[in-house]
Amino acid sequence: MASVHNIRVFVGPDPKVGGNPAPVWLDADDLSSAQMQEYTRRSGHESAFVLKPATPAHALRMRYFVPNHEMEMCGHATVGALWLLHQRDEWNGAPVAIETLSGTVTGRRVDGTVQISQPRAVVQEVTQQALVEEIAQCLGIDASQIAGPVLNAATSRVKTLVRLADTAQLHGLRVDFSRVESLCERLGSTGLYPYAMSQDAAGTVSARQFPKSSGYPEDAATGIAAAALAWGLRHLGLVGRGALSVTVRQGEAMGSPSAIHVGLPPEAMAQEGCWVGGDAAAEDLR
User: Fold this and answer.
1) Of 19, 25, 62, 66, which cross-links 214 as Cys (Cβ 3.0–4.6 Å)?
2) 12 — phi, psi (to 5°)?
3) How many CA atoms, within 13 angstroms, populate the side-chain half-sphere of residue 100?
């Protein structure tokens, strides 16, 4: 029988603070798609449903919903589901193949942290100045405040990466949420992801995610967007080309600080993907 567990994913150093809520439904095989959608709508959060795999090549199958529709993949909900399975002694932390609508995702536990695989990103510059101007208007800033090229980057879904000068500007954005969905349609993107590099911590960046049409205006932590951003930073030369970890801080402007860790391969390993991970906690720890 299906059961729901409320997990907060990508929590910061204090597990009682921050993270992105993720209802995780275990043993969800008897739930219909309509029920999954309705339960997600009621929760108001992106949710993961854990099912038996459809093929012998996978140990698990997961489906993901936001309040408005089903998603192919959700990074934070996958991390949350694996964290929960480990807490319940239903997964030992060894590499596990997960069937998703976006393809196979591998999960693993390293040094006490759950990590999931993502492929190498496709990164393209947004060259139409009219779109850049519209992004600025949507974010409530002048186009001259956008630092460097705007990028569309994707591991599982396209995110539009917009660099700002500092975190004060990032957290002070006044977004016109009524324009986000139509703008993302024109960009071929599923969310705007403005960011600012940390001035005091190497390999650290702060970001905010404004999704295209999820049913809520902002995400506290977005693993798929963080993965895309890490590759975008390498594309722009803002992080090194050796193997390294990028920490993405998100949710700070929402009062729910989160920390997402992305492990990039050396640039020489051209076909290698990345690993997205972080800590989680049960909702009742608040």
Assistant:
1) 66
2) -80, -160
3) 26
Q: How many CA atoms lie within 13 A of 123 on its CB side?
A: 20
How many CA atoms within 13 Å lie on the side-chain side of 48? Answer: 31
Report the distance separating Cα 7 and Cα 19, nearest Å: 9
pTM as predicted: 0.92
Residues 6+ apart with CB under 8 A from 242: 266, 267
CA–CA dist 71, 173 (Å, integer) = 27
Residue 165 has pLDDT above 60, yes or no: yes
Is the C-alpha dihedral spanning 148, 152, 153, 158 positive or negative? positive
Integer angstrom CA distances of residue 79 from 19, 43, 166, 200, 202: 12, 18, 29, 28, 25
Give the three-state DSSP class for 62: strand
Residue 252 clears pLDDT 90, i.e. is over it: yes
Nearest to 234 by CA among 197, 189, 267, 192: 267
User: How confident is the model over 196-233, as pLDDT tens digits?
Assistant: 998 877 789 999 999 999 889 999 999 999 999 999 99
| Neighbour count for residue 186 (Cβ, 10 Å) | 12
Residues across the chain: 286
Phi, psi of 42 (to 5 degrees): -65, -35
- DSSP state, 201? S
Using CA atoms of 31, 36, 40, 45 in order, give the dihedral in degrees to the nearest 10.
90
* Helix, strand, coil fractions of the chain, as percent rounded to 5: 25, 35, 40
Tens-digit pLDDT profile for residues 21-51: 999 999 999 999 999 999 999 999 999 999 9
Q: How far is CA 270 from the centre of its chain?
A: 23
Cβ(153)–Cβ(228) under 8 Å? yes
